[in-house]
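Researcher: Last one for today. Full complex below.
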Amino acid sequence: MDVNASGAWAIGVDVGGTKIEAAQVDATGKIGRMIRRPTEARGGPKAVKTNILSVIKDLLQDAGSPPSGVGIGMAGQIDPKDGSVHFAPNLGWRDEPFQEELARALSLPVFVTNDVRAATWGEWKYGAGQGCEDLLCLFVGTGIGGGAISGGRLLSGCSNSAGEFGHITISQEGRLCQCGNRGCLEALAGGRAIAEQAQEAARMDPSEAAVLLQMSEGQMEKITAQVVAQACRAGDPLACRLMEGVGESLSAGVASLVNALNPCRCLLGGGVIGGTPDLVRRVDEGVRKRALPPATKTLQILPAQLGDLAGVVGSASLAMTRFK
Amino acid sequence: MDVNASGAWAIGVDVGGTKIEAAQVDATGKIGRMIRRPTEARGGPKAVKTNILSVIKDLLQDAGSPPSGVGIGMAGQIDPKDGSVHFAPNLGWRDEPFQEELARALSLPVFVTNDVRAATWGEWKYGAGQGCEDLLCLFVGTGIGGGAISGGRLLSGCSNSAGEFGHITISQEGRLCQCGNRGCLEALAGGRAIAEQAQEAARMDPSEAAVLLQMSEGQMEKITAQVVAQACRAGDPLACRLMEGVGESLSAGVASLVNALNPCRCLLGGGVIGGTPDLVRRVDEGVRKRALPPATKTLQILPAQLGDLAGVVGSASLAMTRFK
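Model: Here's the assembly. Have a good evening.
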């Protein structure tokens, strides 16, 4: 990116549990230089902060003009007032006044927000959500999260935690979720849940799970959601049954959200959708069966477009919107 | 109401399946003259329209000044652009250009909206939702509906059908709902569902349902949600078990909405809540167990305040907001 010529730009940073992704992003959502670095969450907050700072400094170095600001997306609960990180379970952070610290260290305006909310913003501004004033995004990775635009505004909620779509109950007596509740969408259709259900099936009946076990070097704990998706693509009946259940659970969850929020467009993204793109079609079919006709007649269900970059682009764009 | 002295006022009309309620409402939400009249839905759209028109004319007659406008709340799907009624199942209406017709007949501005959305607005402006920028209302009557205020704005959705909270799935394989889906909140916790579940239990084991049958003159089809609530208050174990299930289903449903939307306040209203006010406490307990701590720590769960009048007051207030 020729940041000298292009005018406004910002740095977007997506802080994941394993890697930090950061990039120069211009006002049209175009990505310039991009850096990936391990998060090193085990090193504690100090190590992670040092890594984030160094990535940002690298991106500042070759830029001709200073950025409007820096946007950071993190999985966690962020204080809407001062951007401090109340709780980021992936990183083991509790009450870190990160936004303020980083702004001081960089002498630049910094905006910290929830990573999935940033990704929703990214898809809305530059991805498959463009031009849509009532948008729902559901990201199905290890866990499930999302975001909603309603009447042209990103919903944040009372304490900045709106969009926890992985924790809507779709099966009152269903599988236990990491959150302690039962039958959450995430506990039935998230990547972790897919792997666990496959491993449970393999434990119950190793012969039925022969293909899954073979694909994971015979080690049950190596059966991941990716392995299940791959096995289903190869026609394995157990894997396909599991993925069918995932499609049905996602349909029930999306139907709930469609009835509650009546979006014009619903985007599905995240690793589980990326691994089985056909899920988008199946959810589309399922939602049209399950949800109310007034809500589905104006609804589009589409794959998200920006992939892993939604968070980086969205964080940068949020910073630009805020600090222009 | 001294409409001469009080300045701005409007007529609010709540068109139910059995009765029309209408009143003069001033800008502070105070109700002046009020009229109730049977809807006579069996007479078809023409009869109902005549009844609505006559109620409004009665309310105009003794008013010293003309109202800002007329607000009409109806159970149904209303076109956001021209207020025509696409579908009102209670009344058997399909594609009635009612807003335009009524405005012409009255020579007054008319605003037609969904009844539950109007009630949400009423509770927000003048009831238990006052001062709350992120509000959720759930009305549990024969069916279940609701509305949400997010960031100080009433959510309407893409085709004006947001707030169908009765049709979020809480039990994927649960009871069949009137909407055709399975395990909707309404199919487990709405008044109709309570009555049906009680009747099913009575059919299965009349001796266990002795109290319920006695309270309904021995006629199974006369076991209503009200009868179940009354029997539970009298200590009947079957009725109390049913109401416990209702509390759990409502908790699961409200927890889903709390996780998704992160409201500051959630109001529970409608006949089922009115008949068993203790449900508010039970849902409060259940939601705090089920939903995520970041979303519940700032949450209040309270009974709605305006009762049957929420729709009338809300419709009038929406008309005043629109036509001031």
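The radius of gyration of chain A is 20 Å. Chain A touches chain B through 53 residues (CB under 8 Å).
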